[in-house]
């Protein structure tokens, strides 16, 4: 089986409400309050941040756009943008899952919505080439999930059939798009939660 991992919220920590509560305590007192601020900042990964995800604009431009749209100071917006790379900490249970899937003989790939600066950071900081045969970052192909084109690009790059791929992603819209592209897919919440589903499919031993 070809198992394809999302990154944010799957292999790397990414929970915008709690992230903003840590970076912007003067604006976001706790994660609950962070829900509304995260929706305004990241726009559900559409709008300004969506263009950044797709590599259509750079960090300076996304900072300027968010500041102009929200009225927040550009320096404060830059503080958040600059803090994202450090926020993307490895989730050790997912690393263990990767190692177990590799040991079981599966081929592993990744498909991640990731602006180029953060993609560069992850490649420098982690042994992605040891864990994965290949992968697609949205910022480098100018497409993003859940758009159909990035799934087609991934299949072409991986050199595999869509039906042979099992996608693990934390966003239901991306799971639906994977199914529409002919992939198998599972909604990822935690590594511990997905393990039984992988065992049911015969992809992991007991």
From TrEMBL:
Keywords: Hydrolase. GO terms for molecular function: hydrolase activity. The keyword Acyltransferase does not apply. It comes from the Bacteria. InterPro entries: HAD-like_sf, HAD-SF_hydro_IA, HAD_sf. CDD domains: HAD_sEH-N_like. This is Putative hydrolase of the HAD superfamily. It comes from Roseateles asaccharophilus.
